Give the backbone structure.
Amino acid sequence: MAYPIGFRYSAAYAGIRKVAKDDLALIVSDTPASAAAVFTKNLVAAAPVELARRNLQSSRGRVRAWLVNAGNANCATRTGERVALECVRVTAKTLGIEEQEVLPASTGVIGVEMNGRLVVDAMPELVAALRPDSFDAVAAAIMTTDTRPKTAFAQMKRAAMAGMAKGSGMIHPRMATTLGFVLTDANIPAAKLRGILTRATDRSYNRISVDGDTSTNDTVVLLANGCSGVRPDPNEFAAFAEGVAVVMETLARQIARDGEGARKLITIDVAGAVNDDAAAALARAIANSPLVKTAIAGSDPNWGRILSAAGNAGVVFDPAKVDIEMQDVLVCRGGLAARFSEDALKQKLDQPECAIHFQIRGKGKGRARFWTCDFTEGYIRINASYRT
């Protein structure tokens, strides 16, 4: 894999977590970079989300650094805004850059006051440790209940692209807790990045769900610093945009696969809806159904739960024209039970990946793909003791 040039990374333990594990990370571009970002649509937005929005607007899409902490969401607290500002200011001062060129991000427990002094005290060590080969250290430092780091890479001519993400629970991005950072050394103006990021988000982060809860801290940022000297011509923008979408889709699948307590990745394909938005609504309803997700956890081919979930999506369709496949086995034809071997299908459903295909017969051309995971007792165990 080739890392984008002109970026440096570092991670350190600042004492924000209860356990001695890196909880503070910094990503720095050696030159001012064009940037675009999408944030949570949750009305309760964390202080670093609000500050990142303002800084991105004030800088007109020019960014030099991201500061990320894990272990505390810095949300719904009395000191949230002051702490976010304090962290941004010390980062800017130590790096010798403008405050508006720093984007903050946080992930962790909501409603617990965050001690900004911990970040201030750790900053000299964090900046001194910046290295171009510490990408993986940052990917690990931003994890909370994740069981593994999530990274993805792509190459376009002489330009490189790398992405990292975190997220395992509170996942239902409608831009989940998820943080995502995609970096490239191509030269792309911020105005172009915004459209590229919005479209890539719609087919990646906005197509995953673990538990149907949208986080207060969701942030995905796309940064292009131009250090490779590669400036795509108009005919190459489509290829670049596809590279961004593939990287983000790869990260999104990793998030769904690593859902809290999950054992199985579920891919839901809907076809035949009146349009793509209707198909996405149907897929989302199926993905968010606890009954569907627990059935998959138990390898139970209970297709009636899939049909019922779709019926609650707020999308008009004729149930008598619905065919459903699970693991490529037809289980429902025309809204009624199809003949299949339950024992054989149960064995197929024991696999670590499950495919559900929901087809509406007719003239509809709408399609959508969605990723989720099964619900197990592990999800309850993790979230019943999350703060302790």
The mean pLDDT is 93. Residues 261 and 377 are 7 Å apart (CA to CA).
